[in-house]
Amino acid sequence: MNSVSLHQFSTITVLLLMLAFYGGTYLLTLGIRKQKEDADAYMVSNHRVGFGIGAASMTATWIWAASFYAAATSGYTYGVSGPLHYGLWGALMILFIYPFGRRFRKLAPNAHTLGELIHARHGSSSQLILAFSNVLGSVISLMVNFTAAGALVSVLSPLSFQLGVIIAGVGVLLYTLWSGFRASVMTDFAQLVALMAIAVVIIPAVFFSMGGPSELVAGLDTLTPQQADIFSTDAILHQGAPFFVAVLAYAIGNQTISQRLFAVNEKHIKPTFLTATLGYGAIVIGLGMIGLMALTLGIEPMNGDMNNLIPQMVSGYLPPVFIALFFILVIGSLSSTADSDLSALSAIMMADVYAKNIAKGRPDPQRMLLVGRLTMIVATAAGIVFASFSLDILVMLVFVGALWGAIVFPVIASCFWNRVTNAAFTTSVLVAMVTFCVARFELVPMSGITALGFEFLASIGGGIIIALMVFGFLGRLAGAVAGLLALIAMLVFATGELRDYTVLLASLTAYGTSTLVCTVMSLASKQRFDFDRIGERVGNYDGPREPQHTPDAAHGHPGNTHLAGQR
Amino acid sequence: MVILATPTWPANADSGAASAALFLFPFTRRDPMTLLFGFYVLVWPALTLAVLVVIMRAVLKDRADARRTNRELV
To answer: Quick check: A4 contacting B, CB < 8 Å?
Structure first.
C-alpha cells in the first residue's frame, strides 16, 4: 500500500462541520460577553486567570495547524527520531520562557504586553522595535493559519481554497471581536479539550488499523540507517538544531505568550507553563508518529505534498467519522492560534501604539477598545488577503526570525541588569540586523578573516543561548559557566565549519552581535536603573474595579496600580 | 482533486481491532522491539489524556472557586 487517497466530503457536510464549530464557539462566548467590556479585560482578562484555563489556553495557542503537518513531515523525513525533534523543541519554547516570565510579571504585575514593560524601562524606540516584531509575527501566523484552513477545505471537499480561508477568517473574527482576550482564552479551553480528545483517539486508531507495532517494526527494515536511528545526526542537525537556536527567540518575540504570562494568576505561572509544555509535546509528537507510520508503510505523499500525509493516513485507515474528527482537530488548532493572534495584535495596538505613543499616557479606555476591535478587523482582512493570494512570505519570515533572535539578549538583560540603556537596546538590535543580513545574503564573500569574524560572533551567539537557558533555571553563576563552556566549544569545533551553514551562521550572528554591542554599551554607561519604577509606570487603564480579595490587594501591591491615578 | 480510491473501512476496522487486541493481550509473547515501539507510539496519546484530565480537573476547581467568590472565570 503506497498510494492512499483522500476521502471527499460533500459541500454540505463541510459547511455543516464549520458551522457547527464556529457556531458552537460563538455561542460559548455569549456566556462571558458583557454589554460594556473594559480595556484591561479585553487585553489580559483579570490578571488572575486560573491554572486550568491558563494551561489550556497556552497549549491551544502554541499548537497551530502547521504543528501537526510539520511533525508528521519530520517523522516521515527523519524517521524514528523525527517527531521528537519537532515536538520537543517546540515544547521547550514554552518551558524556557517561564523563568523569565516570572521576572517580567514581578517587574510589571499589571502589564498587558511585554512592550509596555520595555517602554517603562527604556522608552519608545526599544518598545516599538519589540512591538513591530510582535506584529509581524502575529500577521504571519494569521496568514499561515488561514492558509491551512483553505488547504484543508480544498483537499477534503469540492469547496475552493479561498472559501475555506474566508470562512475561517470570518468565523474566528466573529467570536473574538467583542470580548477580545477573554473570548480567546475561554474558547481555547473548549477547543483544546476537543483537540486532545480527538488526538487521544486518532493516534491509536491509525496505529492499530495499519497493523500495530509489529507492522511498524517490520517496516523499519525499509528505512535508511539514519531514519532507523533514535540518535540520528541528520535529524539533530537539520531539524533539532535550528529549532534549538530559535527556542528563546520564538518565546520572547511572541506576544501571544507574554499576554498569557500577564493574564494568569501569578502564583500559577509555573504549573501553567509546565502543563502546557507537556500538553504541547504529547499532542504534537503523537501526531508526528503518523508520519513515521506512513514512512514504514512506504506511503507516498499525494501530489508530493507532505501536508497530505496525515489526511491520507486517516482517510486510508479510518472511517469517515474519524476524518470529520480530524477536520475539527485541524480547524480547532488553527482557530485557537488565530484568535490568540488577533488578541495579541489588538493588545499591541491598544497599549503599545495608542496608549503609550499616541495618547501619551492619557488613554481613553473606550477609545482603546475601539482601537482593539478595529485592529482585529483590519488584521483579519489582511490575513485573508495574504492567504488568498498565497503570497511568498519567505523573506518576511527570515527577517522576523532574525529580529526575534536579535532582541532576545537586550530584552532579557534589560529586565535583570540595571546598566542597560535605551541606546544600547536599540543600537544592538539594529547592528545585529545589519550583520545578520550580511551573513544571510552573503553580501561579502564568506572567507578568510571575514568568515572568522562572523564565526566568532556566531560562537558568542551560541554561548549566550546556552547561558540564558541555564541562567533562567539555575542562576547567574551556572549560566555564566555554561555559556563560557559553550562559547569555547563553538570556537573549537565550529570555527572553519560554520561558514558552510549560512542560515545557522546568520541566526547565531544576530544573537552574538546584539549581545556584544548591548554588553559593551551598557558597561560604558553610567546609568543605574531602579527596577521598582517599572511597576509604578505600568498599570491598568480602566478605573478602579470592585476590590479583589487577594493578599496583594490587601498589602498595596503594585498590581493595584492604575494609570489614571498616576498621570 | 483526483480521488484515487475509496477507503474500505470494514476490512481495515477488523484488522485494526485484531492488531489492538493482539498488542494489548498480556499473555501473548511479544518481541521486545515490538513492545518498545508500541510504547514509543502510544505513550504520547496516553500523556495527552493525562494532561487533559489535569486541565479538566483544574478548570472545574477554578469554576467552583469563581462561583464561591462571586467573580468571573475569565
So the answer is: yes
